[in-house]
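Consider this today:
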Amino acid sequence: MAGPLATNIKFTAANNADGRLEVFARGSDNALYHIWQTSPGGAWGTWSRLGGVLTSNPSAVRNADGRLMVFARGTDNALYMIAQRAPNSGWHDWVRIGGEIFDEPVARAVRDGRVAVFVRGAQNRLFYIVQDKAAGTFGNWINLGGYITSAPVIGLHHDNRMEIMEATWHSDVPVRIAV
């Protein structure tokens, strides 16, 4: 792919409140880049730089208030977030959320509209952080334990229950935790 993106990239995408798809990726300069549809189901704009210094692939999600949020690991191994100022709008500056993460974050909206971010953290344990209310601030990190060897994968059921799959040191079969 031509342009500012690195090779061997992993894309993440989310729908804007107005239905336009927006795609995000880490660039060859380790900054976050995004491209979006100019109308729902329509043509695409051009890649634009959102900055930051990412050391992981990003994870995007739409907040309960319609704003997109993107999460990534920074150079200090902490979780960082950048969010739209308003739905379908420009972007705030990057915000440090903290924690100590060793892999890419995985962000998902939970059943009640809050955003949760899952990571492989200290001592290779599964951690997550979640908003205190829909479109609210993030609380404290919660240690779900285990000993995982990669970033978690989140599956969503038809009723928005999450299934967290993680590779562990003792098995090829993912551990499943229903949330």
